[in-house]
Specification:
- It is built from 18 helices and 10 strands.
- It is α/β, with parallel strands linked by helices and 411 residues long.
- An 8-stranded mixed β-sheet has the order 3-2-1-4-5-6-10-8, sandwiched between helices. A two-stranded parallel sheet has the order 7-9.
- Helix 4 packs across helix 14 and helix 9 runs parallel beside helix 13.
- The chain is globular.
Length: 411
């Protein structure tokens, strides 16, 4: 292609694309005539036909971001799901199967899996897997031979909840089996094993191979005292203030292991998982671990699955909460790619992620998106809802600082 043709192609593309998004205006007749003459001459050359076609494609893609994404079933061979019978994991499996994606459900209890999942679905394979065994996790990824080999995975084996139908003790048992040794938790062993097992698969390096469900707040216990005071709306929430059994520290360490195992990854840290919060809400993504709020598990599952086909997510760690789609004004976007494209890679700033200035500016914005009227998450007690805080009602575990929970404070 000649330089002249390149120039015509670029100018014509910009001109056509700009006009597609330009609001109707009334121009002075001379200016309008001049513009029409120039545009006619520009588009009269044969080279401009390519420009028109390219610009139309760009315009259509901008209006419909989903048109840029091929079906997930064409991008992966099989997806392994750790924690497939969990309260979030089951929705992950449903999302994948609904998109005709073969799934390997890595579970501890196959009988429970047969009740929670749909064992009659030909795309679903249920395998009893010890997520605390590196050898068993890696073996599970290639149990189906070359044809059924997994080339991507979603780690949904853990999570935190503010749902009132489960005691704090039961939640901790379900999440970590009351493990107090961080080195022996399934996060610390099974997650990096997934990464190592998938690092050498043939799946392209643009998309994430391992998507981790982590938790907002996992870095906050390690913040300096000055930062905790300055960002008290994030550092003072119950799960961070109490940090039962050091579970947030386990999450943070597991994230670090995933980042260092050489696999293409992304890490999603949702806010409070709340099934009472309506699904199909707009997610708000941020970085710096300052997000506080709610998100429904079904929305979390959809995001986790969408991340597998979102190149903008690769190599990034980010938080997410959702805001209510009030009267249809804030529906979810057709694609999460544009929002994630604006976020920073974990490798920036020497591997520390966003700068402290960016983090504090993000905090100031995110605090305005808190649920409720008082918008002061640091005043919440463990087990207390935002609605109860607004009404000055105690939560199910008592007043802040005196919560009747089987946990010990690390503060």
């Amino acid at each position: 292609m000649t330089n002249k043709r390149r120039a015509i192609l670029a100018i014509a593309t910009l001109s056509y694309t700009a006009s597609a998004f330009q609001a109707p205006t009334t121009l002075h007749s001379a200016t309008a005539a001049s513009r029409q003459s120039t545009t006619t001459a520009l588009f009269s050359s044969p080279e401009a036909e390519d420009a028109r076609n390219a610009a139309k494609s760009l315009t259509n893609d901008a209006k419909n971001p989903k048109s840029q994404q091929p079906p997930l079933s064409t991008l992966v061979n099989r997806v392994a799901v750790a924690g497939a019978t969990g309260r979030t994991g089951k929705y992950v499996v449903q999302q994948l199967l609904s998109q005709n994606v073969p799934v390997l459900a890595m579970v501890r209890d196959v009988d429970k899996a047969a009740n929670v999942l749909d064992p009659t679905n030909a795309l679903l394979t249920i395998r009893q897997t010890d997520l605390g065994s590196e050898k068993d996790v890696i073996a599970a990824l290639s149990d189906g031979g070359e044809e059924g080999k997994c080339d991507a995975a979603i780690w949904a084996a853990t999570g935190f909840s503010d749902s009132p139908d489960q005691s704090i003790l039961d939640k901790l048992k379900a999440v970590f089996g009351l493990a107090t040794n961080a080195q022996a938790t399934i996060d610390a062993v099974g997650l990096p094993a997934l990464g190592e097992g998938l690092a050498k698969t043939s799946k392209g390096g643009v998309l994430p191979k391992v998507v981790m469900l982590s938790s907002a707040g996992c870095t906050r216990p390690s913040w300096s005292e000055e930062k905790k005071l300055a960002l008290d709306g994030s550092a003072g929430i119950p799960i961070v203030r109490l940090n039962p059994f050091g579970i947030l520290d386990v999450k943070k360490e597991s994230e670090e292991k995933l980042r260092s195992c050489g696999v293409e990854y992304c890490i999603f840290r949702p806010g409070g998982l709340n099934d009472s919060w309506s699904p199909n809400q707009r997610p708000i993504f941020s970085q710096g671990d300052v997000a506080v709020g709610r998100i429904n598990r079904q929305d979390v599952a959809k995001i986790l699955v969408d991340l597998l086909s979102t190149p903008e997510a690769t190599g990034k760690t980010f938080e997410g909460v959702s805001i209510a789609n009030s009267e249809g004004y804030y529906p979810p976007a057709p694609s999460i790619g544009p929002a994630l494209d604006r976020l920073a890679l974990d490798s920036v700033n020497g591997g520390t992620g966003p700068s402290e200035e960016v983090v504090r500016a993000t905090y100031a914005i995110m605090q305005q998106l808190l649920p409720g009227e008082k918008q002061d998450a640091a005043k919440l007690a463990m087990g207390q809802t935002y609605e109860q805080l607004d009404k000055d009602e105690d939560g199910r575990l008592g007043k802040r600082g005196t919560e009747d929970a089987p946990i010990r404070s690390t503060s």
